[in-house]
Automatic annotation (TrEMBL):
Pfam families: HGTP_anticodon. InterPro entries: Anticodon-bd (IPR004154), Anticodon-bd_dom_sf (IPR036621). This is Proline--tRNA ligase. One of its GO terms (molecular function) is aminoacyl-tRNA ligase activity. Transmembrane segments: none annotated. It comes from Nitratifractor salsuginis. Residues 2-59 form the Anticodon-binding domain.
Length: 64
């Protein structure tokens, strides 16, 4: 299941909800998108990894 959080809230507020809901994996599309990178956030330990857009699905499946 995919949840798009496009609310006009601060990033920290969205991250708090991400943790409370129990979503196991988050993808943050931000400034690095111009370089072909997104940030993958693994809720277990809140590990943050920069991943190439083309590899995000494979990398996410490894960590779920």
């Amino acid at each position: 299941e995919v949840l798009l959080d496009d609310r006009k809230e601060r990033f920290g507020f969205k991250m708090k909800d991400f943790e409370l809901i129990g979503i196991p994996l988050g993808i943050v599309v931000g400034k690095k998108l111009a370089e072909g990178q997104v940030e993958l956030i693994v809720r277990d330990g809140l590990e943050r990894i920069d991943v190439a857009v083309e590899a995000v699905a494979d990398e996410g499946l490894k960590r779920v």
